[in-house]
């Protein structure tokens, strides 16, 4: 597969995957609402208006689908919740609808999903791909998103869904947020699990899924060693050279600041990476110390 089309290419994960694919000698193009403004080769689409330049699908040997409004970017008002759901479901259905129309289809479709599928707080239980979905807002979003994406399989295109955990990177994601206050502190009691993955390993996982014809279906995209919120915050503060206090930010204070979204940071998931490791994927950063050392070097 030489030509790879990416949706959500300008985001944190999309940028990282683009660099990796280009480094491997692949041609990369993005689907974008503003193709003229991108430095990366781009084709036009607008899922809100049901528009997609079909030329992009003829061009692509494989598709990586990352598009979706940021879950933690804004407070969860009703309109924001609708945007979070629609941006994922509509974009997946648009791709399905347009792929139906073309004869020479791409060989593989690799889509992001999220560990939020299992529910906002699954406690200490280790969760696997076959476990049932949660009943909260995020779980229902992921369920609908996966249902829309899985339609691609009906077109005889090999489809992989990667349920992404907490992405560690200095350029975005959870780490800059955790370390934003002058003093780092756990959230709530700090005992909730965070199933983290280094951005490089996540990008390599998408490319692994793209290049290995044996992979299809759902895989957890997390590192092999989940840690508690307290453990992660303490170590991140250490590597960043920031003071850490062991007293957690109380749940009620988080609810005042974040509204309903607070449930997401007070809860957590301990997610298994066993299925992905069984495909021969090897981590560069399986150890949190190693990952943070690289990020803050």
TrEMBL record:
Chain ranges of the NAD-dependent epimerase/dehydratase domain: 4-220
InterPro entries noted in UniProt: DUF1731, Epimerase_deHydtase, NAD(P)-bd_dom_sf, SDR39U1
Chain segments annotated as transmembrane: none
Source superkingdom: Bacteria
DUF1731 domain boundaries: 249-295
NCBIfam families assigned: yfcH (TIGR01777)
Family: Belongs to the NAD(P)-dependent epimerase/dehydratase family. SDR39U1 subfamily.
UniProt name for this protein: TIGR01777 family oxidoreductase
Organism of origin: Cyclobacterium jeungdonense
